[in-house]
Design the sequence.
DNA sequence: AAGAATGTTACATG
DNA sequence: ACATGTAACATTCT
């Protein structure tokens, strides 16, 4: 659920909440598997006493830089959320990690499905080495995208979801980008024309920027939806063109949007705008 | 009301 | 190299 725009929204909210400069008083881990890099005990001891120096995003990771040059990286996977509450509040059932701060507040990690992971490392480069380019940053040019696409003979949608290829896209924004660029999700990456590559490059950036602009996509009312710090909902759902809009009209040509499976994942397409030609 | 589906990713298997 | 299957888990949808 949280893709680049959602993670960016959370990072922005964490920064607005004045967390940089706070010192950690104590840490409590209530679901051991959340801590991927060590035992919960070791993790708590290593983080206690540290001050947060910066909070940034890379790919779908939230990076808390600590004052000893270690980094706490958090991947929210499907249902991870951060909450900020007064330290005297008792933990709610899905709060798996509680980070008590020096100002009476606690940063709490909430994750109903428990897929999210914390990575504590002093080797940031190694942690990030397998991620592809940041799609909203300068080095991600049309040429770079074209070169990378030509390296593979894979279906374009699973490739876009592969974080080694490009960082930050998930199912929502991949579907939106492919619709915007009028490319069928099963097209082979090395079959795209120059024109299609340009369209895809611009579409990826457009849908992600729009996602950030509207503070992420929140689709329903349920627990397992995207909420930023403080339970804020994202406003991008109203601006989606195809995702979860099966049987509704394509905003471009009014054809009914269909849902197909590509690489085991649901894909939403306009069968008129996104054609799979014989050469693909 | 049981069974299927769910926005992510790592790993295992052809 | 690539596609496919499975598992991690809880909630929501059908």
Sequence:
């Amino acid at each position: 659920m949280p893709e680049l725009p959602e993670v960016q929204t959370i990072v922005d909210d964490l920064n607005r909440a004045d967390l940089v400069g706070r010192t950690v008083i104590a840490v409590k881990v209530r679901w051991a598997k959340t801590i991927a890099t060590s035992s919960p005990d070791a993790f708590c001891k290593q983080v206690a006493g540290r001050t947060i120096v910066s909070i940034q995003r890379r790919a779908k990771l939230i990076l808390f830089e600590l004052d000893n040059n270690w980094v706490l990286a958090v991947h929210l996977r499907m249902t991870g959320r951060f909450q900020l509450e007064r330290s005297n509040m008792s933990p709610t059932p899905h709060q798996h990690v509680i980070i008590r701060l020096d100002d009476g507040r606690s940063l709490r990690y909430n994750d109903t499905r428990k897929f999210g992971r914390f990575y504590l490392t002093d080797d940031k480069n190694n942690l990030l080495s397998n991620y592809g380019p940041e799609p909203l940053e300068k080095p991600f040019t049309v040429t770079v995208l074209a070169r990378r696409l030509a390296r593979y003979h894979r279906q374009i949608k699973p490739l876009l979801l592969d974080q080694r290829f490009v960082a930050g896209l998930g199912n929502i924004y991949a579907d939106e980008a492919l619709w915007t660029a009028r490319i069928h999700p099963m097209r082979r990456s090395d079959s795209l024309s120059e024109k299609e590559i340009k369209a895809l490059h611009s579409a990826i950036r457009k849908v992600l920027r729009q996602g950030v602009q509207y503070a992420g996509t929140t689709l329903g009312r349920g627990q397992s939806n995207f909420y930023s710090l403080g339970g804020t909902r994202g406003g991008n759902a109203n601006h989606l063109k195809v995702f979860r809009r099966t049987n509704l009209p394509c905003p471009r040509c009014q054809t009914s949007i269909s849902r197909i499976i590509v690489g085991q994942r649901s894909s939403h397409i306009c069968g008129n705008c996104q054609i799979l030609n014989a050469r693909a």
